[in-house]
Amino acid sequence: MICRFPLLILLLTFALTAGAQKKSDPFKIVFYNTENLFDTIDDPAKSDNDFLPSSKVGWNSERYYHKIHNIGKVLVAIDSVNLPAVIGMAEVENSNVLHDLITQTRLRSGNYQAILEEGSDPRGIDVALIFRKDVMNYVSHKAFLSATTFKTRCILYVRLTDRRSNTFHFFVNHWKSREGGGVETATKRDENALLLKHLTDSISGQDPKAYIVILGDFNDEPKDKSIAETLNAREPVANPEAGNLYNLLYEPYLKGEGTLFYKDWDVFDQIIVTGSLLNKKRGKGPHIEAPYATIFKQDWMLYTNKNGEKIPNRTASSKDYFGGYSDHLPVYSVIRY
C-alpha cells in the first residue's frame, strides 16, 4: 500500500497559504465609480426613486444582485490571484449594499472590512472604502465636508498601516458633477479641491514624508484647474518632492485614454499620491513604479455604440435598464517594496 499522507499534507498546506501575502508582496489599490449601487428599499431621506421596484427601470432584487455580482466580477478580475488590498468606491448608497458586495460575491474570499459614512448628497450616493484585513490594519477613519456652500458627498479619510507598520493616509472623493455645464460647475469642484488640499497639507505639515493616497471621481481631468492648480497635483517627474502631490493618471490622459465616455473619452477617475511613494529603490519602503496607474478595461465590460466605439456598458439610465457594469472604468496602482 502506497502512503499518500505526505502528499495530502502538502496539498492542504498549499491550499491554506495560497491566498496569504508576505510582508514583501506587492498589492493593488483601486478606485471604481460603481454607478448607482442602490438597494431596492425606499429611503425617505434620499432621492432614490429611480432605483426602486416601481421605477421605470424596474429595480428589483434580481437586478440588484446582478449589479452586485457584476461589480464584484470587475474588482476580482483586476487581480484574481491576490485580490486588491484597498478599494475606494463612489456612488454606493449605504453600508448594507457594501456588506452585500463583500459577502455575496467572489470578494468574500478577500476578508474585507468596509467603511462608509453618509454624506449630504441629495441622491444619497456616497464614497466608501474596503480593505483586506490580512494585508492592511485599520487605524482610524473620519468623514469631512467636501463643500460648505452646497450639499454633496463627503471626503472619506481612512488611515491604515501595512504589515511593515507603514502608515497610509487614504482620501476617497467624488466631486461635484458637471450637470448644468462643466464651466458653470467648475467653482464647486474648486471648492472640493481646496478643502481636500487643506486636509493633505495638514498631514504633510506634520510629516513631510507621509504616504498619502487620494482616490476619486473628480469630474475634472488632470489638467483642469481644480486638479492641476487648486489641489496642485502635478505630472510625475524623475525626482519627485516627498510632500508634493502627483497625478498617476497623467500618462493615460496624455495618451487619449479614458475612464468614461461622453462624446469622447475623459479621465475623471484618478489616483493621486505624495512624492514619498514614487521612485524609491527596492527595499527602501513602499513605492509605486512606472507605469504608475492602469485603467482596467476588458471587452466584456464594454458595448459597441452606434458609432462603432467600444465604451463602458452601464447598468441603467433613469428610464432604461441595460444590465451592464458601470459607466466608469476602474483604475489601479501597485504598491511595491
Structure write-up:
The chain has 337 residues and is of the alpha+beta class. The chain is built from 6 helices and 17 strands. The protein has helices at residues 5-17, 61-78, 95-103, 186-206, 225-230, 250-254, and strands spanning 27-37, 86-92, 112-116, 126-132, 136-144, 155-162, 167-174, 211-217, 233-234, 245-247, 260-262, 264-266, 269-274, 294-295, 302-304, 310-312, 331-335. Helix 4 links the parallel strand 7 (167-174) and strand 8.
Strand composition percent: 25-35%
Mean pLDDT over the full residue set: 93
Helix/strand order, N-terminal first:
HEHEHEEEEEHEHEEHEEEEEEE
Q: Can you identify the CATH class?
A: Alpha Beta
Structural class: alpha+beta
**Within the largest sheet, what's the order of strands?**
5-6-7-8-13-10-9
Name of the CATH superfamily = Endonuclease/exonuclease/phosphatase
Report helical residue fraction: 10-25%
Number of domains: 1
- The CATH topology is given as Deoxyribonuclease I, Chain A
Radius of gyration computed on alpha carbons: 20 Å
Tell me briefly what this model is.
By secondary structure, the chain is an alpha+beta fold. Helices cover 21% and strands 27% of the residues. The chain has one domain (28-335): 4-Layer Sandwich (Deoxyribonuclease I, Chain A).
Q: Topology of this structure?
A:
Layout: H1 5-17, E1 27-37, H2 61-78, E2 86-92, H3 95-103, E3 112-116, E4 126-132, E5 136-144, E6 155-162, E7 167-174, H4 186-206, E8 211-217, H5 225-230, E9 233-234, E10 245-247, H6 250-254, E11 260-262, E12 264-266, E13 269-274, E14 294-295, E15 302-304, E16 310-312, E17 331-335
Parallel strand pairs: 1-2, 7-8, 9-10
Antiparallel strand pairs: 1-17, 2-4, 3-4, 5-6, 6-7, 8-13, 10-13, 11-12, 14-17, 15-16
Helix pairs in contact: 2-3
